[in-house]
Amino acid sequence: MSNQQYIVPRVGVSEMPPELNTSAGVSLGVIGIVGTFSKGPINTPITCYNVYDVKRQFGDDAMNLTGFKSARGAFNQDPRPEKIVIVRVASAAAKTASLDLLDGQSTPKASINVSALTKGTDGNNVSVKITAGSTPGTFDLVVSYKRLPQETFTGLDLDTLGIPSSYVTLTKAAGANDIPAPLDDTPLSGGDDGATTADADYIGSVDTNGVRTGLKVLETVNVNVVLCAQQTSNAINQALIQHCEQMNVQRGLRVAVLNAKKAATPSQTIAAQTYNSGRAIMAYPWVYPVEDTTKTVAPDGYYAGVLAALAAHISPSSQKVQGIAALERVIPMDADDADLIALTMARISPFAQDIMSSEIVISNGLTTFSYADPATQNDWSQTCYRRIFDKVEMDVAARTKWAKSQPITEKGMFQPLRDQIDMILRDYKDKGEIFDFRPTICDKSNNTAETIQARRVITGISIRPAAAADYIDHNISRFSA
Predict the structure, then answer these.
(1) DSSP string covering 364-400, please?
(2) Phi-psi sector, 461: left (phi>0), alpha (psi -120 to 50), beta
(3) Which of 72, 111, 356, 447 has the fewest CB atoms within 10 Å, i.e. the most exposed one?
């Protein structure tokens, strides 16, 4: 740049709308799971990125626990979900495994209490060994997990118990004066998962201090697909639907995956399907996981994993489901199968077996919401319709935050909003995520003197979603040269 440009001062004026915030992209790939586990904090949202992460933070599978089964089913999908936010729940019976270390006096008494970090039976796998320290009045501690040494802490005494352990905490016993006596490797005991839960533990609540439990914890977290692991009760299903319907753009718009009853026939499942919400999907039947083909598990995690890994505008119909060895009830994916037709008409989304490939697939991508009313054309029956509208709504909201507190004028507000929203929708159309859109309306026709006085700005956004194909008709004919 020439120095001559700075000889004569000048003022350059450029008429531009306020700088538009850009979005890093809206994801619908996060699953929220409420379930029981053998360890981990209770009623606290914890993010996991793979099944090994779930094991590390919440423990492995167990017969009477629910959360791992659903999380594993989700992470079995390829591609797998972006991440899962887990909320561990437990009954009041949940207890922390512990061990009192005794001193070496002639009449031994408690010196130090060793406790697992969290409540649950996984704490019973932790053991500790005590040896004399290298300095008088100190001791060394070895922490093992399933009898394999994991951590060693040296030179401890009654005043230095704040160790950075991944397994235990140490607390000085009341009235203790002496360090613990040497002790062979000894397990902690008394841990309880609190696995015998009630519906209320999953549904949760918010107390007068704002402390949340169960599903209520996920109200504070941005997730896109939610489920209560392995649960089938009407009360929990209704709570899941209400949870999703009450969410807003800031908290994350979402859909719920509901489970049909275990061992239910198609006719029993159809009779029980009384829900009517565009934000709920009824999955059926229960399945045999490849990890243990002797027991069935609910399909919620598998369905949620497929859904979270899909682009929002793609229907889950005909998508392959990974990690399933067999279905509790085999439903052929055949146009002549009466059960499949009946389940579809009842707005239930079953797993079926593709006759040609023997793969397990989702037979339709329906929500529990009723089909279109010709009078209103209010049709959210396709899950992909619901999700693409959610994505667009969250994307538009994120990228138009600049408009808040800007002057409500044609050039300062209305035109920039119209231009930006149309640009966003044009990008969705060009990528094939929506079929078409109408120009955004944001002017004096829908922003009256009254709404402007109330400091409200209204935009009219109209989108035509990309329809999911229900039928492919191949017309094959012979021709002669």
Answers:
(1) --B-SSPPPPTTT-----BHHHHHHHHHHHHHHHHHT
(2) beta
(3) 356
Question: Residue 420, class by beta-carbon neighbours within 10 Å (0-12 exposed, 13-18 middle, 19+ buried)?
Answer: buried
Which CATH number describes the domain made up of 98-187? 2.60.40.4290
CB 276 within 8 A of CB 252: no
Is the pLDDT higher at 1 or at 84?
A: 84
> Rounded to whole angstroms, how far apart are CA atoms 415 and 442?
7
Contacts of 45 (CB under 8 A, 6+ apart): 32, 85, 86, 87, 217, 218, 220, 221
Q: Give the model's pLDDT for residue 372.
A: 67
Residues 148-174 have a mean pLDDT of 97
How many Cα atoms sit within 13 Å of 409 on the Cβ side?
6
| pLDDT (mean) for 156-175 | 97
The residue assigned the tokens 């399945």 is 287
Is the CB of residue 94 less than 8 Å from the CB of residue 42? yes
Mean pLDDT of the region 462-474: 89
Please determine, for residue 209, whether its predicted confidence score (pLDDT) is greater than 70. yes
> Which one-letter DSSP state was computed for residue 261?
P
232 phi/psi in degrees, rounded to 5: -135, 0
- DSSP reduced 3-state for 198: coil
Using the predicted structure, report yes or no on whether residue 9 has a pLDDT greater than 50: no
Strand partners, 259: 283
Reported as a single tens digit per residue, the pLDDT across 46-91 is: 999 999 999 999 999 999 999 999 999 999 999 999 999 999 999 9
The residue-averaged pLDDT of 178-190 equals 98
* CATH code of the region 30-90+196-362: 3.40.50.11780
Residue for token pair 């408690």: 110
Average pLDDT over residues 441-464: 96
Domain edges within the chain: 30-90+196-362, 98-187, 400-481
Average pLDDT in the chain: 92
Give the residue among 439, 391, 443 at the shortest CA–CA distance from 415. Answer: 443
pLDDT at 8: 43
What is the rounded CA–CA span in Å between residue 120 and residue 93?
Answer: 10
Collapse the DSSP code of 4 into the 3-class scheme (helix H, G, I; strand E, B; otherwise coil) and give the result.
helix
- Nearest alpha-carbon partner for 282 in 193, 332, 217, 350: 350
CA 474 to mean position of chain CA atoms: 39
